[in-house]
Amino acid sequence: MSETPFIAVEGPIGVGKTSLSKAIANHYQFHLLREIVDENPFLSHFYEDIGEWSFQTEMFFLCNRYKQLEDISKKYLSNQQAVVADYHIFKNLIFSKRTLKTEQYKKYLQIYHILTSDMPQPSLIIYLTASLETLLKRISLRGRDFEKNIDKHYLQQLIFDYEEAMKNHQKDYPNIPIIKFDGDQLDFVLNKQDLTFIIKQVDQALSSKGE
């Protein structure tokens, strides 16, 4: 395999990104990169009043994700050690475009492009989708206090936003394959056959990238 694998698992809130990333990391013995969520001091306020707390929330996420990607680039990818992450930093644009006011978003966009201009790009993106009903069920099961006030309309918008963002990303980066899995049809946490199916698809994608 000529390219050091860097897999990013993406999808809306509650779809199972971290669970799948862990399973993939365990299977291939890749380094697991998990995004910082619980440590964001603004997140509980954000779900109570999105308009008031969106800029603080998005800037915290951007700065921390930038630092994480900088670290894995230096410590792992540059030393040919494969990585699987439970996010892609472009998710910042999905969320910020939806939540920030126009002038805030313009400033945010400038900062985003400065920070990410030389960041490593994934060699493969795994895109998880699910219906609103499934997402709400999984969010409830994991029981994070700061997510109990999440707005259903906001979550439904994110489902749409992710679909559009993935289509655009495929156009902008045609050399980065995207594998899409339906979380309503696959339960890779409780069903080993579903996880095996996903792993086989990842095997094929990684093999083709190494040819």
UniProtKB/TrEMBL annotation:
Entry-linked Gene3D superfamilies: P-loop containing nucleotide triphosphate hydrolases
Protein name per Swiss-Prot or TrEMBL: Deoxynucleoside kinase
Source species of the chain: Bacillus carboniphilus
Keywords recorded for this protein, A-Z: Kinase, Transferase
Cited InterPro entries: DCK/DGK, Deoxyribonucleoside_kinase, DNK_dom, P-loop_NTPase
Deoxynucleoside kinase domain boundaries: 7-205
GO MF assignments: kinase activity
CDD domains, A to Z: dNK (cd01673)
Taxonomic superkingdom: Bacteria
Pfam families, per the entry: dNK
